[in-house]
Amino acid sequence: MIPFFIQKVFYYTWWKGKMKMCGCLFCKIAAHEVPTTIIYEDDLCMVFEDINPQAPVHLLAIPKKHITSLNDAGEGDHNTLGHLLGVAARVAKEKKIDGSGYRTVINTNAEAGQTVFHLHVHILGGRLLGWPPG
Ligand code: AMP
Ligand code: ZN
Fold it and tell me: Residue 121 falls within a domain, yes or no?
């Protein structure tokens, strides 16, 4: 029987290797290998500032697990998806845009404008946002 601690080390090494193999930018951000301004972090997710903000507040909430897009989220990921929205509301409150209003957006695939293929929720606020989006 392998001790629990050793199992955890093996799992951590395997998971880090998996993330590195995929070469995904947001996996690297989740692993603290690419610097960014982190607003919130827990075991399941991370929220950081978008590098090219489209509003005074523009944050990205990502799962730490690599999920390519909303199309690729399985039933086992539903808890994480709900958690991402809950965390989005929490950081919106911290940024004081909950009262004025904010938008949460998940772009999925090319025609929606997805450019980074690791699922992420945009959190935009601090200005009047037009509708419908372009
Ligand atoms: P999307 O076009 O929906 O896939 O959104 C990708 C977002 O990631 C864009 O808003 C980019 O500005 C943002 N982005 C790309 N690279 C970085 C980075 N290194 N740090 C923070 N945000 C990034
Ligand atoms: Zn990834």
Answer: yes
Atom of ligand 1 minimally distant from the CA of 49:
21
114 lines ligand 1 (CB under 6 A): yes
The CATH number that applies at residue 24 is: 3.30.428.10
Total domains, the chain: 1
Instruction: Judge whether 122 counts as a catalytic residue.
Output: no
Per residue of the chain (134 residues), give pLDDT as tens. Answer: 566 555 654 554 555 455 555 699 999 999 999 999 999 999 999 999 999 999 999 999 999 999 999 999 999 999 999 999 999 999 999 999 999 999 999 999 999 999 999 999 999 999 999 999 98
Within a domain: residue 36? yes
Is 93 a domain residue?
yes
**Closest C-alpha among 82, 101, 83 to residue 92:** 101
Amino acid (one-letter) located at 37: T
Nearest to 62 by CA among 75, 53, 73: 73
Q: Using an 8 Å Cβ cutoff, are 70 and 119 in contact? A: yes
Q: Is the CB of 36 under 6 A from ligand 1?
A: yes
Structural domain span for residue 96: 4-125
The number of the ligand 1 atom at minimal distance from the alpha carbon of 115 is 4
